[in-house]
Design a protein that fits this description.
Layout: H1 3-23, E1 31-37, H2 39-42, H3 48-62, E2 70-76, H4 88-99, H5 107-117, H6 120-124, E3 129-132, H7 136-140, H8 155-158, H9 164-178, H10 183-202, H11 222-235, H12 242-247, H13 251-261, H14 263-267, H15 273-276, H16 299-310, H17 316-331, H18 333-346, H19 355-364, H20 370-373, H21 389-409, E4 416-417, E5 420-421, E6 433-436, E7 443-446
């Protein structure tokens, strides 16, 4: 998404709200109601710009404490009966929102909320924002709930439900596959699983699905194909790319390919199918996967990209100054530096022309403290099994040791981004690594050692 694409819906909401508020500021209105959207609360794939505009309206309503007018933002989901959903594109949009856990809102409920927002009751309740369009059940049973709703921020909404129906369905597919006694039964189990998942994604009955038709004929788009790809990886332990799903000549052909790649079939084990099904694609690091060499961009393209990015946040005067600097660099020292980079790409002793430059300039020559210049934050989903501090430490330690063992053995799954394999060379620096200080530039020391011993100790109860 370009900066221009991001700004159009954002600035429409921002300036529209701001100008209307200023225009009526002297009239002391009883109420000022903004029609925001659920996308600003839970997020909506591909609509970060629209979500940002709605989030501004939510914040605007919350921060008008000194005004005599009561400001309120209504975060609605999809409204039933509106013409925006009448065409084919609108119907596809509805199905996508339903899979994300959104609940259609009928006109009567919409008007009831609106009546409350403009009534004295909303002012007395000091209600600045209303969120309507999902509930506990819809989020827990959503086929493609936004990641935001899986975080601890939504725990008060999600409660203790955990998508039991989906888990039972997934385990049923896994059991059918792992208990199959012949390749024919395995193939049929995959067909059944794919058809059931496809019916859910495109909202069709089983009778409407033909096994000999391509999946594209049922209205699959790229986003839905990615959902199906993730389902293959997470639930069936099968590495299938979105492009292969869209190009599959039939469901039968796709099932054949999936069965040939699934780790569930390769291992033939169903001792713990739920755990195995979450391991993801089986792209082993020892399969000889060869990544393409990092290309060297041409000088003009690099400078044009730099100038285009600067345009988003520089004033006209500073942008003109930047343009002059870019032209001087292109005609002067830039040519010499580009030639030196070109020589590095041709050097057979250098695997990656950028690697040493990045590591040296950004990390090893830097003298700034890690904090606050490098802050890392991560969060785990809430577990269904509560742990004490010692138990959680043990779980994390064992998981780390298992990862380290797989790293040493070369058994890690290949990482992908947008269906392209990623270089995983940096993982070698995760363990037994230290930075040794030297004058001008530090050095990284990595000891190639084996795993330590694991001892089992009883936990003391306090």
């Amino acid at each position: 998404m370009t900066a221009e694409d991001f700004n159009v819906p954002l600035l429409t909401k921002l300036y529209g709200t701001k100008y209307l508020s200023e225009a009526f500021a002297k009239l002391s209105l009883d109420f000022f109601v903004m029609l925001s959207s659920l996308s600003g609360i839970v997020g909506s794939r591909g609509q970060a710009n629209y979500a940002a505009g709605n989030t501004f309206q939510d914040a605007f309503a919350q921060n008008q404490r000194n005004s005599k007018t009561h400001f309120m933002a209504l975060d609605f989901g999809m409204i039933e009966g509106t013409t925006v959903y009448n065409n084919n594109e609108g119907q596809t949009r509805i199905q996508n929102l339903l899979r994300q856990g959104w609940i259609p809102i009928d006109l009567e409920k919409f008007l009831a909320v609106l009546d409350y927002a403009i009534s004295p009751n909303a002012r007395e309740d000091d209600c600045k924002q209303a969120v309507i369009g999902f509930d506990r059940m819809s989020l827990n049973e959503a086929e493609n709930a936004p990641p935001t709703t899986r975080s601890a921020m939504f725990f008060h909404v999600r409660g203790s439900l955990d998508g039991t129906m989906r888990t039972e369905t997934n385990n049923s597919h896994i059991h059918n596959i792992t208990s199959s006694k012949s390749p024919v039964e395995v193939h049929q189990a995959f067909i059944t699983a794919i058809v059931q998942r496809l019916c859910t994604l495109v909202a069709l009955d089983r009778e409407s699905i033909s096994l000999d038709s391509p999946l594209m004929s049922y209205g699959l788009d790229s986003l839905t194909a990615i959902e199906l790809k993730n389902w293959f990886a997470q639930d069936l332990n099968t590495a299938i790319q979105a492009s292969e799903i869209l190009d599959a000549p039939s469901i039968v052909a796709l099932a054949t390919k999936a069965a040939s790649r699934s780790k569930l079939v390769q291992t033939g084990s169903n001792e713990n199918p739920e755990q195995d099904s979450k391991r993801g694609p089986n792209h082993n690091m020892n399969t000889g996967l060869s990544l393409p060499q990092l290309p060297l961009p041409d000088l003009s393209g690099t400078l044009e990209l730099y100038y285009d990015r600067a345009r988003s946040f520089l004033s006209e005067d500073k942008l003109e100054h930047t343009g002059d600097a870019v032209r001087l660099f292109r005609e002067g020292i830039g040519l010499q530096l580009q030639q030196r980079l070109l020589e590095r790409t041709r050097d057979p002793e250098i695997d990656n022309w950028e690697y040493d430059l990045q590591v040296s300039s950004i990390y090893l020559k830097a003298r700034e403290p890690i904090y606050p210049y490098g802050i890392f934050y991560g969060s785990h989903q809430l577990t269904k099994i509560p742990h004490g501090q010692a138990e959680r430490a043990a779980v994390i330690s064992l998981a780390t040791l298992e990862f380290m063992q797989r790293l040493n053995d070369g058994g890690l799954d290949q990482d992908h981004l947008n269906e392209e394999p990623l270089c995983m060379d940096s993982l070698q620096w995760l363990f037994n690594t230290s930075r040794k200080p030297f004058i001008n530039i530090d050095k990284v020391i990595c000891l190639k050692s084996s795993l330590g011993k694991v001892a089992q100790m009883p936990l003391m109860k306090v």
